[in-house]
Amino acid sequence: MKIVIITLSCFLFFVSCSKESKIYLKELPNTELQKTTFKSLPDFYKENFDEVLQLFVKNCQTKKVFDTYTDLCNKAQEAQNAQKFITTNFRPFLILNDKEDNQGTLTGYYEAEIHASYKQTERYRYPVYATPKDLVTIDLASIYPELKHYRLRGRLAGNRVVPYYARREAAHNDLNASVICYCDSLIDKFFLEVQGSGIAKFDDNSSIYLGYDNQNGHRYRSIGKYLVKRGDLTLKEVSLQSIKKWLQEHPQELDEVLNHNDSMIFFSKREQGATGALGIELTPMRSIAVDKKYILLGSMLYLSANSQEKSINRVVFAQDTGGAIKGSVRADLFAGSGDEALRLAGRLNRPLKLWLLVPKEKAVDRDE
Q1: What are the residues whose beta carbons fall under 8 Å from the beta carbon of 157, sequence distance 6 or more?
Q2: Secondary structure (DSSP) of 112-172
Q3: Three-state SS for 183?
Q4: CATH label of the domain that carries residue 115
Q5: What is the pLDDT of residues 259-284, one digit of tens each?
Q6: Which of the pair, 1 or 146, is modelled with greater confidence?
Q7: What b-and-e string marks burial along 218-255, b requiring 16 or more CB atoms within 10 Å of the CB?
Q8: Same domain for 22 and 83?
Q9: Distance CA 116, CA 119 (A)
Q10: Which of 7-16, 18-27, 129-138, 338-347 has the highest mean pLDDT?
Q11: pLDDT for the residue 203
């Protein structure tokens, strides 16, 4: 199998590069792409291109994005026509997967809210932890480059690294961690962890932003799928709202169900609202979480997710990651904060198609 690096112009003009050829970015060698056109993207020309350009410029404020798109970041500052800037400097490529229709799944997340206190009381019993001081993170990439997307987390037991406490174990061990605040609902705390960021609201009407800081190293396990497997909910019924309602109605089984998910998230105080892994504040209905093994953080994409409800067709930006977001055609759409965001995020589960908007000069092809 030979690897051939070519420019997009070569790809467009050489007959040997067939329409069905798979395209590969050098930065993402495992992500299969297929050339297409902007005209093939549903409702693309109905976009608010001025808003898209503003968000691209905002992305360019991060070093990661600027280093990737240096020339385009500079050109964007001077762009007079937002639509022309996008269509002239980028080309859409359909992201392929192992399904015949290349569809994946779009879900949603939101900025969670908890009611909190700085002091532990009978009402405010549940601690929201900062990263434990004894949590060890090991980066193996310097020895095994193929593991650059993985981090080994654990704790020292003598001279050995052992797994860090799972959720069930953490409840029975004093974590060597600072407590940021205490909240009044174990269910709300759990969903704060699932969302990865949120707002802690206090009785004096003050509030603080909480953002993801670290994780205990255990794989995320869906309690929704667990409830379906147990027969407590059907697959069609599962949503954030239905899961929360079931937990509230079955307090005697709360610990057992929540502990099915061994993963725990640790937080830090933030100066701004929900902030993704890219390091900038998320934009409702424009920011998505992706699997960074397949999509680079900072990438601009187009998504199309249709159902019997309102269709979602729009330009989005890969600004976050998530433990449940796995695969090339998989995205989690940030819905914002408040009741409407919760309603949308909790019920959003639709077939998805994704296009990567690639700078012209970054296309590669592979003969198979």
Answers
A1: none
A2: EEEEEESS--SSS-EEEEPPPTT-EEEE-TTT-GGGTT-EEEEEEETTEEEPPPPHHHHTT
A3: strand
A4: 2.40.240.50
A5: 999 999 999 999 888 888 898 999 99
A6: 146
A7: bebebbbebbbeeeebeeeebbbebbbebbeeeeeeee
A8: yes
A9: 9
A10: 129-138
A11: 96
Burial (CB count within 10 angstroms: exposed 0-12, middle 13-18, buried 19+), residue 127: middle
Tally of structural domains, the chain = 3
Asked if residue 302 lies in contact with residue 295, where contact means CB atoms within 8 angstroms, the answer is no
Q: What is the pLDDT of residues 296-347, one digit of tens each?
A: 999 999 999 986 667 899 999 999 998 789 999 999 999 998 888 988 998 8
- Whether residues 321 and 342 fall in one domain: yes
Cα 139 to Cα 149, 162, 241, 263, 275: the distances in Å are: 9, 15, 37, 19, 23
pLDDT number for residue 215 = 94
Residue at token pair 């409830």:
227
Together in a domain, 12 and 96: yes
For the chain, give percent helix, strand, coil, nearest 5: 25, 30, 40
